[in-house]
């Protein structure tokens, strides 16, 4: 005991950040602040000038290896981790073990050659104009035929609606259409139950639960068939069966299409055309990886965007004026023509202020607030922090967007103007690209970044052209502590008619 206390006193002096306790490490502070974990991490990083080290297992040997966590939001360190020494900071065995049952060796759960091969194949497809056109078609269809009628009905009935739920359904339908060419139709009047969507949600929830537990605990529960591990096993089976049916049917369709000259433009079909010998398991994981990445991120960002607009009417007014100016030039001065159909992506590309407002939303409320990497070999970060092999590095995306050293004393203010060029006519990112990593950075930067902006801008413009929103009385908006920054109780809003500027007022943007 004396030897341990001497050892503990020595290691505690070498650590920074939140208080470290014997055996339990920093876990007591984490649990005490679990309802505000991201803000707690950001506060610790501000006090420690952008980087601190702690341990989650104050046990000899483990504390300097698997138990040691380096937390940072310093842009220099982020560039080092995500780009300069990319190979030294893979996803690592812990991350891969947690997600393997659901995602296998898919692009978002793999490292090394397996990742490089899938990344190269996917990158070729994401650069094609046809993929963007496909996304525009899926988004336009879901907005015009589903989201617009549902919001209009809520407005007519004066009923509060959970906008976060609607957006999750919309992006799920869109990403399924883009990923494997089949629409699950979860966003329909009545919001029907869908077995695939339900199984996917249960599998995701059970997978994320593994991050809360030590690996030995969730692996034992898996072996014994206990708790959420049962849900995960059953849900993965249901998801796999659904996708196997889609894949088998698609293979037959592609075979017959070679004779007819027709084609599918979804990602699954594109992978199939690259190589006929891909196994069903590999193709399933391709589809599931893109669904997981493409659904929650855009819908969560849009939820926080609409909430921020309810708090900042000036910004909402600027967005409405910009949309009105663009549509006056492309569709004339009659507002009825503006809402006759969803925006074309040529029109969306001109919405600079809207993109700035969405970027400012992602700065303050990134869809994935924290991410972690495994350290392969001993290294020293640019700020002088030593990170030993076997430890982990958490880079706080949430804190990076709230770093006063980067964003200034007004870093908590919602100011889209900080993303514009000096003449206010163009979009400009931050001076340091590693100060804003909501879409990741370096070799793993999000392939779907442009598609995400396209979808978010079309959805945002379509809603704002028709409606103004107010948060339902008594509804509390707060962060859900998970890998994705959901709102704990959703976003319940009342839907009101929008009064649009007309004539010269719209043309001049006044």
UniProtKB/TrEMBL annotation:
<keyword id="KW-0812">Transmembrane</keyword>
<dbReference type="GO" id="GO:0006629">
    <property type="term" value="P:lipid metabolic process"/>
</dbReference>
<dbReference type="GO" id="GO:0016705">
    <property type="term" value="F:oxidoreductase activity, acting on paired donors, with incorporation or reduction of molecular oxygen"/>
</dbReference>
<keyword id="KW-0408">Iron</keyword>
<dbReference type="InterPro" id="IPR036396">
    <property type="entry name" value="Cyt_P450_sf"/>
</dbReference>
<keyword id="KW-0560">Oxidoreductase</keyword>
<dbReference type="GO" id="GO:0005506">
    <property type="term" value="F:iron ion binding"/>
</dbReference>
<feature type="binding site" description="axial binding residue">
    <location>
        <position position="446"/>
    </location>
    <ligand>
        <name>heme</name>
    </ligand>
</feature>
<dbReference type="InterPro" id="IPR017972">
    <property type="entry name" value="Cyt_P450_CS"/>
</dbReference>
<dbReference type="InterPro" id="IPR001128">
    <property type="entry name" value="Cyt_P450"/>
</dbReference>
<dbReference type="GO" id="GO:0016020">
    <property type="term" value="C:membrane"/>
</dbReference>
<dbReference type="GO" id="GO:0004497">
    <property type="term" value="F:monooxygenase activity"/>
</dbReference>
<keyword id="KW-0349">Heme</keyword>
<keyword id="KW-0479">Metal-binding</keyword>
<keyword id="KW-0472">Membrane</keyword>
<comment type="similarity">
    <text>Belongs to the cytochrome P450 family.</text>
</comment>
<dbReference type="GO" id="GO:0020037">
    <property type="term" value="F:heme binding"/>
</dbReference>
<protein>
    <recommendedName>
        <fullName>Cytochrome P450</fullName>
    </recommendedName>
</protein>
<dbReference type="Pfam" id="PF00067">
    <property type="entry name" value="p450"/>
</dbReference>
<dbReference type="InterPro" id="IPR002401">
    <property type="entry name" value="Cyt_P450_E_grp-I"/>
</dbReference>
<keyword id="KW-1133">Transmembrane helix</keyword>
<keyword id="KW-0503">Monooxygenase</keyword>
């Amino acid at each position: 005991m004396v030897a341990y206390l001497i050892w503990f006193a020595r290691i505690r002096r070498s650590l920074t950040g939140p208080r470290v306790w014997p055996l339990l490490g920093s876990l007591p502070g984490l649990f005490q602040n679990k309802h505000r974990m991201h803000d707690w991490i950001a506060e610790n990083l501000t006090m420690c000038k952008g980087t601190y080290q702690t341990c989650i297992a104050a046990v000899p040997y483990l504390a300097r290896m698997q138990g040691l966590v380096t937390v940072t939001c310093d842009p220099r360190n982020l560039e080092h981790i995500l780009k300069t020494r990319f190979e030294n900071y893979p996803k690592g065995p812990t991350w891969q073990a947690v997600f393997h049952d659901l995602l296998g060796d898919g692009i978002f759960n793999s490292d090394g050659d397996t990742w490089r091969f899938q990344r190269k194949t996917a990158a070729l497809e994401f650069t094609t104009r046809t993929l963007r056109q496909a996304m525009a078609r899926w988004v336009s269809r879901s907005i015009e035929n589903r989201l617009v009628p549902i919001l209009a009905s809520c407005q007519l009935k004066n009923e509060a609606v959970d906008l976060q739920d609607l957006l999750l359904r919309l992006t799920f339908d869109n990403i399924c259409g883009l990923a494997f060419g089949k629409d699950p139709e979860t966003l329909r009047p009545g919001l029907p139950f869908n077995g695939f969507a339900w199984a996917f949600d249960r599998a995701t929830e059970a997978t994320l639960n593994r991050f809360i537990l030590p690996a030995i605990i969730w692996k034992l529960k898996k072996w014994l068939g206990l708790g959420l591990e049962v849900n995960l096993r059953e849900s993965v089976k249901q998801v796999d069966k659904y996708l196997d049916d889609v894949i088998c049917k698609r293979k037959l369709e592609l075979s017959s299409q070679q004779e007819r000259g027709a084609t599918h433009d979804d990602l699954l079909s594109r992978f199939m055309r690259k190589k006929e010998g891909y196994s069903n398991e590999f193709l399933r994981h391709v589809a599931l990886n893109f669904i997981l990445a493409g659904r929650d991120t855009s819908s969560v960002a849009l939820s926080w965007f609409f909430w921020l607009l309810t708090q900042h009417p000036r910004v909402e007014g600027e967005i409405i004026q910009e949309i009105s100016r663009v549509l006056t030039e492309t569709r004339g001065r009659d507002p009825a023509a503006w809402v006759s159909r969803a925006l074309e992506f040529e029109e969306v590309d001109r919405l600079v202020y809207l993109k700035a407002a969405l970027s400012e939303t992602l700065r303050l409320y990134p869809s994935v607030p924290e991410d972690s990497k495994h350290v392969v070999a001993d290294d020293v970060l640019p700020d002088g922090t030593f990170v030993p092999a076997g430890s982990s590095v958490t880079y706080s995306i949430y804190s990076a967007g709230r770093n006063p050293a980067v964003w200034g004393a007004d870093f908590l203010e919602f100011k889209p103007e900080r993303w514009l060029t000096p003449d206010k006519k163009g979009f400009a990112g931050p001076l340091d690209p590693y100060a804003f990593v909501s879409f990741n950075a370096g070799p793993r930067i999000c392939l779907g970044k442009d598609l995400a902006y396209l979808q978010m801008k079309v959805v945002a413009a379509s809603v704002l052209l028709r409606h103004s929103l107010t948060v339902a009385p008594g509804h509390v908006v707060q962060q859900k502590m998970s890998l994705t920054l959901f709102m704990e109780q959703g976003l319940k809003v009342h839907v009101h008619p929008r009064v649009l500027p007309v004539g010269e007022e719209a043309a001049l943007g006044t």
